[in-house]
């Protein structure tokens, strides 16, 4: 007889980004020095953060990978390159975002199809939180346990 895993009862409700997201994570200003942004990442143990204007509108996203470009640029060009968040961030036009109502299955599919680790959650064109792979994994674990 083949083991087919535990019998699961039907799922009544699939949680949404609004329920899974992390609120009040740090956001970055475009003119923030890159070293200061790295300090934020290390202090808060995060891998990236949205870059927003004073109104909370998304300008881009800065990740750990983007920060590594500083080392590559310094080594290659033998000088200190521009060191603001804006110079290293991924522009908003290239950042995947989600709305509050996307469900956990949609989020899981999004993360499976892409290499990023988190996405900004938007409401009225403003960043109100972020949802990460770990948030989705936590939601799946809670739903199945």
Q: What number of domains?
A: 1
**Which class of secondary structure composition applies to the elements?**
alpha+beta
Per CATH, the class reads: Alpha Beta
CATH architecture: Roll
CATH superfamily: CBS-domain
Oligomer: single chain
Share of residues in helices: 25-40%
Give the count of helical stretches: 6
Strand percentage:
15-25%
* Unreliable parts: 1-7
End-to-end Cα distance: 25 Å
- The H/E string reads HHEEHHEEHEEH
Q: How is the largest sheet built, in terms of strand order?
A: 1-2-3
Describe the 3D structure.
- The protein has 145 residues and is α+β, with helices and mostly antiparallel strands.
- It has one domain: CBS-domain, CATH 3.10.580.10.
- It is built from 6 helices and 6 strands; from the N terminus they run ααββααββαββα.
- The protein has helices spanning 17-20, 34-44, 64-77, 85-88, 104-113, 133-144; strands spanning 48-52, 58-63, 90-91, 98-99, 118-123, 126-132.
- It has a 3-stranded antiparallel sheet with strand order 1-2-3. The protein has a 3-stranded mixed sheet with strand order 4-5-6.
- Helix 5 (104-113) crosses helix 6.
- It is globular.
- The protein starts with 16 loop residues before the first helix and ends with a helix.
């Amino acid at each position: 007889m083949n083991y087919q895993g535990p019998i699961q009862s039907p799922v009544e409700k699939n949680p949404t980004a609004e329920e899974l997201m992390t609120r009040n994570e740090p956001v970055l200003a475009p003119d923030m020095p890159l070293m200061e942004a790295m300090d934020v990442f290390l202090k808060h143990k995060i891998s990236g953060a949205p870059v927003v204007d004073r109104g909370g509108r998304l300008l881009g996203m800065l990740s750990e990978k983007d920060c590594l470009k500083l080392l590559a640029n310094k080594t290659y060009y033998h000088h200190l390159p521009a060191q603001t968040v804006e110079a290293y961030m991924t522009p908003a036009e290239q950042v995947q975002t989600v709305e509050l109502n996307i469900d956990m299955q949609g989020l899981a599919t999004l993360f499976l199809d892409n290499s990023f680790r988190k996405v900004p959650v938007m409401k009225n064109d403003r960043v109100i939180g972020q949802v990460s792979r770990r948030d989705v994994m936590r939601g799946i674990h809670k739903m199945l346990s």
